[in-house]
Amino acid sequence: MANKGPSYGMSRDVQSKIEKKYDDELEERLVEWIVAQCGAGVGRPERGRLGFQVWLKNGVVLSELVNSLYPEGSKPVKIPKPPPTMVFKQMEQVAQFLKAAEDYGVVKTDIFQTVDLFEGKDIAAVQRTVMALGSLAVTKNDGHYRGDPAWFMKKAQEYKRDFSDSQLKEGKNVIGLQMGSNKGASQAGMTGYGRPRQIIS
């Protein structure tokens, strides 16, 4: 936001719609989870959209969050000490978090762009990414998730079925309902559709 002037007209309308998507209650839940997952060392943000953005902006808290979901010795993101102060280094740190989140299983459509966080363009997208990461952690249930499992919804999982050969052969004899049914109807006695063309001279 540093180099951006005020927006006008349609740009302002679009930005205000994006800002309305930000959820204060979700922010509270996400902060609680991040602190529970990473420990009190990550601190707490000031309440509100701007506080949440400033807290996550340098990418260190996000990197610690994704690292905490992996076992010791296989952390995907290297966290510099001291935290980066140069803008491009901070953006690089956020990009490393995004790559690690994608590798963890967050789908591309749930991942925010670096500028969404860094310039405050769409903090709601940042919330969606962290929410998706939490949902995946709860779903995987590999012992690395810390916090209340009720904070996130479990993702749908595959339910694999094993059919025997006899069951598969039996299924070939059944006409599935998706094939449709004519319920005994036939075309007997049908004529062409509509009336023939009337030519009046």
UniProtKB/TrEMBL annotation:
Determine if Acetylation is one of this entry's keywords: yes
Query: Is Cytoplasm among the key words of this record?
Result: yes
Q: Which UniProt keywords apply?
A: Acetylation, Cytoplasm, Muscle protein
- Which compartments is it annotated to reside in? Cytoplasm
Q: One cellular component GO annotation, for this chain's record?
A: cytoplasm
One short Pfam name that applies is: Calponin
Q: Its principal location?
A: cytoplasm
Check the record and name the PANTHER family matching this protein. Answer: CALPONIN (PTHR47385), TRANSGELIN (PTHR47385:SF16)
What is the protein name given in its UniProt record?
Transgelin
Whose protein is this, by species? Chrysemys picta bellii (Western painted turtle)
- Whichever gene encodes this chain, its name is TAGLN
